Amino acid sequence: MADDDIVLGIDLGTTFSLVALVDESGPRVLTDENGEARMPSVIAVAPGGPDEQPRVTLGWEARNHAVENPHATVYSIKRLIGKGPADVEKELPFLAYAVRPGPRQTLVVDIDGRAYTPEEISSVILQALRERAERALGYAVRKAVITVPAYFDDAQRQATRTAGEAAGLEVLRIINEPTAAALAYGIGLRQDTGKAATPPRGHSPLPMMRCSDQEVGDGGDATGETVAVYDLGGGTFDVSIMRLEGGVFQVLSTAGDTHLGGDDFDREIIKLVAREVHEQFGVSIEAPATKQALRGFAEAVKVRLSQTESAELELDLGNDRKYRRTVTRDEFERLIDPFVTRTLELMDRALRDAHLTRDELSRLVLVGGSTRMPIVRRRVEEFFGRPPYTGLDPDQVVALGAAIQGAMLGNRRWDMLLLDVTPLSLGLETMGGAMGKLIMRNTTIPCRATEMFTTFIDGQTAIKLNVLQGERELARDCRSLGEFELRGIPPMPSGMPKVEVEFMIDANGILNVSAKEQRSGKRASIQIVPNHGLTRGEIDRITRDSISFAQQDIDAHRRIDLVNQVEFDINKTEQMLGKVGTLLEADERRRIETDIAALRQLAQESGDLDALHQALDRFGRSTLHLAEIGIREALISEQKKAME
Ligand code: AMP
Fold it and tell me: Which residue's alpha carbon is nearest to atom 19 within ligand 1?
């Protein structure tokens, strides 16, 4: 069986390639049997016997054996495709395999005396991606859209097309990688931005932890806009500036560096380790296998530093010699700062070439694995003055966009990203596991909602924010879209810190959630594409469930609110007893202690919410006298302090 409508989106990358397609849940990349979406763009050729064809391996297998067999392992073929001998002088020193001129101003890779064209090598990769898709779908697929860098010339584009055809693909279109990245974020898909946003409806109030203040803003205009795509991968950096007019992208300028990327960051760690190992133990790291191992080690340290503030380095040098030290993110960022600065200089150059200022850029999309690094995001945000798009996996953005282009060409019905409203409510998990909705379902986008949150425990310095999607009242019945933490809140009594949380959905349906503690100015944020991977069927089911479980959910939510309130009141009362309890009559003090125990037990056991509500009210009244004494004593002590 074959489905003529299916069009693959292929990101044929320098180091990794991916394949994606669009189905009823929208665009998705296809993974291998280990769940890995990226396939190394590497092939290795092992000489066969005298009468045999050479044996070709590819992907991870070829990459993992590259050190043993460098002259027969072909990587970075994208650097050669469609080029002639005169164009590649600068590339050759970076390649460990032999490259020689081929017929008619072309290049060929020479492995054990046999010539392979770059198209042939690329077609092996493309064919493997096509087979991956066929395994996933269970039927043959022929059509594809393949991406290339915006600066590729006609010869390079034609060679890429030839490689696709050699892989048995009908290449419907070759599109620019930055265009694909923009499409993945829905830029260019929406003609009408639906600017007249309606305010979200009210929401059920929650005790203490949140207070309301919602507003609706303008997420921007999607027509006639300029989009910059900042692509920082392992080995290359590219920036493209495009204008989007009537749904068509036009490249205004490109800039970049074909040898700038994550490998440079790894090398800084390698240099640091090699220098210190030499200083401390007099050992030089020379052997290729050791160097290769060190490269993997350095990359792992770098990736860890994207998640944590520091990483432990430990190398066993044999003979009881151990190299050990801690690298902090700050230290690492200082090492790589010049590279990041260079990317921003190139971005400025691209803007100048496009005759645009930074302010005139409407959107900035981040692509490439290295854009996961906090320093890159921070510096780019400073440069742009606004958060760039980061909600999708930066490795997958190009393939997803290619699949979207494919779906448009294949007339596949798929309109998820084109919704003008949020199909499901969005909010945060609040104390006790309730769902606190900030943006209600069916709110027109773009829209914005803000709300104040505070801490629950005295001296609490961090708040975890779990972003939820769904209609149910409990967090566990909603879909968690992502979590982040706001740290560095100055220690204060509970309830004092003011954390403003903002939900902002722009015209493309991208959600930015940011949290800011007002006194310290500490901020944290996350970006999410809420509708990614959501089917219409799921939306319908979630909406139906919210109706069938409505009463049960409301009770559960009310119970959480009441229990939170009980805990908060008991906490405050116990604190007050500690401070001024000695000023009470022994009888009154004993009665309050008994009331606390009874209320606590009722909160734990009682299913009768009305009874709990009444008990909470009674408790408030019975501790009024204590609260008055507490306030009086606080005032006296303040006055004393003022006199001193
Ligand atoms: P790409 O060429 O787009 O696949 O990007 C690959 C580069 O991204 C490699 O240098 C990786 O080490 C780097 N990379 C991937 N994930 C992270 C991360 N979490 N932090 C830092 N670098 C990363």
Answer: 303
Q: What is the rounded distance in angstroms from the CA atom of residue 241 to the CA atom of residue 258?
A: 17
Q: List pLDDT tens digits, range 533-570.
A: 777 788 888 888 888 888 888 888 888 888 888 988 89
CATH fit for domain 3-181, picks 3.40.1440.10, 3.40.50.200, 3.90.180.10, 3.30.420.40: 3.30.420.40
554-643 — its CATH code?
1.20.1270.10
Ligand 1 atom nearest to 235, measured from its CA? 2
Alpha carbon of 489 to ligand 1 centroid (Å): 31
Q: Which of 83, 119, 225, 231 is catalytic?
A: 231
Known catalytic membership, residue 302: no
Q: What is the pLDDT of residue 637?
A: 85
d(CA 174, CA 21): 16
CATH node for 426-520: 2.60.34.10
> Which ligand 1 atom is nearest residue 265's CA?
10
Q: Which of 177, 299, 333, 553 is catalytic?
A: 177
| 143-148 vs 170-176, strand pairing mode | parallel
pLDDT tens, residue by residue, 307-359: 999 999 998 888 888 999 999 999 999 999 999 999 999 999 999 999 999 99
Q: What is the reported pTM?
A: 0.79
CA–chain centroid gap for 311, Å, is: 21
Give the pLDDT score at 4.
64
Domain positions in the chain are: 3-181, 426-520, 554-643
Measured between alpha carbons, how far is 487 from 461 in angstroms, rounded to an integer? Answer: 6
- Average pLDDT for the chain: 87
Rg (CA), the chain: 30
